[in-house]
Amino acid sequence: MRPRTLPAAVAPVLVGSALAAHDHRGVPLAAWLCLAFALLVQVGTNFANDYFDFVNGADNEGRVGPRRAVASGLVSPGAMRRAMWGVFAAAFLSGLGLIPFGGTWMIVIGLASIACGLAYTGGPWPLGYHGLGDIFVFIFFGLVAVGATYFVQAGRVSAHALLAGAALGALSANILLVNNYRDAETDAAARKRTLVVRFGRGFARVQFAASLGLALAVPVVFRATGYGSACLLPLILAPMAWSHMGRLSRGRTPTELVALLGATARFTALYAALFAAGILL
User: Fold this and answer.
1) Distance CA 236, CA 208 (A)
2) Mean predicted confidence (pLDDT) in 233-250
3) Total domains in the fold of the chain
């Protein structure tokens, strides 16, 4: 299930719901359904990644990160494939509960999210193998997740929801970036052309820093456009962001980068919690 990645699913729902509550349009049931859908899509995507990376040869004996369930023999490929479809089916069913709040557009968003979760490492043209994984994460775990969470509660999509979505999408993409940074050599050998493989680790460090900069700039824009000073709470994470940039630059061993992966996920969770609290305050 890769628990380190799950903050990427929780964070946008938390912030989107805080925005809806700030506008006096919060609907708790819709928010909980969004959270269930987001978590299930994240887990389903992780299962798909475990299965398809094994099938495509990206997870092999040369892998330097945490062991994968199928590649290490803990779970058979058939069992992982069935689990993947089962979790995606549960995600779709939970998403159907959002139709009374958001209309039939929820079916379109749900199917698109599941399809991209599968296409990230599966299908005839896997997104992750062509350097599009970061864009997929930015869109679906940022813009779509925050925007849809706000929409099913408020009945519309606001500019602030999309702006917050860009911040959360950038931070979620950083979780993927650290994972790909660690696996660059084995990904290259398996012809998995992530952005790190395509453009190198120097480019990845710039992308990582730019994502952190964007995330920390968004609360400033919120304050400048009418929100209270409390929305600046995420700025207390600036020293942590600086530390993470240094750790990525100095990271040489898989152990260091695995630790940074967990820290990047925690940063995303802390950012979302502080931003949501600031919006509500």
Assistant:
1) 18
2) 96
3) 1
Half-sphere exposure at residue 200, Cβ-oriented, CA atoms within 13 angstroms? 2
Interhelix angle 254-280/7-22, rounded to 10 degrees, is: 10
Place of tokens 């995420």: 234
Report pLDDT digits (tens) over 96-119: 999 999 999 899 999 999 999 999
Q: Which of 264, 273, 269 is nearest to 243 (CA)?
A: 264
Whether the full predicted model's pTM is greater than 0.90, yes or no, is yes
Mean pLDDT, rounded, for 79-93: 96
Amino acid at 267: F
User: How many whole angstroms separate alpha carbon 18 and alpha carbon 247?
Assistant: 32
Other residues' Cβ atoms within 10 Å of the Cβ of residue 176: 24
What lies within 8 Å, CB to CB, of 166 at 6+ separation is: 138, 142, 143, 214, 218
pLDDT at 72 over 80: yes
The whole-angstrom separation of Cα 82 and Cα 47 is: 10
Boundaries of domain holding 71: 3-280
Query: What average pLDDT does range 51-72 have in this prediction?
Result: 77
Q: What sign does the CA torsion over 6, 173, 195, 81 have?
A: positive
- Give residue for tokens 């006096």: 24
Query: Tokens for 100?
Result: 């009374």
66 vs 12, higher pLDDT: 12
Contact predicate 20/280, CB 8 Å: no
Closest CA to 276 of 4, 73, 27, 22: 22
What are the structure tokens assigned to 43, written together? Answer: 């887990």
Residue 121: Cβ-neighbour burial (10 angstroms; 0-12, 13-18, 19+): buried
Position 190 confidence tier, pLDDT thresholds 50, 70, 90: confident
Provide the token pair at 48: 């798909």
Instruction: Please tell me what DSSP assigns to residue 64.
Output: -
CB-side exposure of 57: number of CA atoms within 13 Å? 5
For residue 279, the one-letter residue type is I
